[in-house]
Design goal:
- The complex is a heterodimer.
- Chain A contains two helices and no strands.
- Chain A is mostly helical.
- Chain A has one domain.
- The longest helix of chain A is centred in the C-terminal third of the chain and has 44 residues.
- Helices cover 30% and strands 31% of the residues of chain B.
- In chain B, the strands form two sheets. In chain B, strands 1-2-3-4-5-6-7 form a seven-stranded antiparallel beta sheet, covered by helices on one side. A two-stranded parallel ribbon of chain B has the order 8-9.
- In chain B, a hairpin with a 4-residue loop joins β4 and β5.
- The longest helix of chain B has 15 residues.
- Chain B is elongated, with a radius of gyration of 20 Å.
- Classes of the chains: A mainly alpha, B alpha+beta.
- The interface between A and B is medium-sized, with 16 and 27 residues.
Amino acid sequence: MIKRKFLITGLLYLLACVFFGIYIYNKMAGYHYLTFRVIAMIFLVTAFGHLFYTIYLLASKKDKENEEYNRLENIKED
Amino acid sequence: MFSAEKIVNTNSDIIMAYNLVKDRSGINLFENFIDDTEIKVSLKNEKVDFYLKQISKTIDSEIIFEEESFLVMIPSSEDKLFKLFIHRSLRNGKAHIQERINLSSGLVTDYVLDGISKEEYLSNQNHLRASPNCFVNFYACFHGMLALMDADPEDNVACNFLPCSAIVYASCSIAQTSGWMQDSNNYIGDSSCNNIYDENGNAI
């Protein structure tokens, strides 16, 4: 699940790169298609949002694991 | 550039021209304006220039240039093929610009100016059409584009989060194959470039 989320983050970042590349190439060609830059920025922001959400999920999972470990340790001590 | 010496209005000429273009290029360029029956034929050194009037007419809203474009076919006796290009005429009062446009790339390969200086023409080229920024070589492209993007604050912000150098490198590679660099084998020509940048990122 987490692995797939990281993959999606990478894909979103890659899409941002592709759209920004199209914008740069068009800029070089004399066209100023700002739409491509806007799309790239949307993908970039989404990618970062998704990345932080994935890290949050990972941290939550780790917290749960720690809690479970502590709970089991306490039971063992008792 | 060239001039029409005789005007012929025969349907057979149009059909012949239509079939030749269709057979050789496989595209129906004439489909939209086959009803426009005026063909100008110029006889020069046994070569025949066909002009099909008129494929487009627009008025640029910013500099009010009246545009007329003609599809031109020049039969070449050497390779038995027809050379095709667009002849574009732009008029604004006394100013008259004649351009030869490559059909496949859409870029201006040659131009004749009347009543307008080369500097004025080149400075207005952005309004007439988008022309690529050309570069002296790949190094100039890479550093020139990075400098251009540095100058734009929004691009600059995007570059803080994206691998701009890699993206610019890829774009310059494509530009090199498109002939936008002076050292390319298929260089499009200085007249087709909006700006030419040197290694220091300065327009020359």
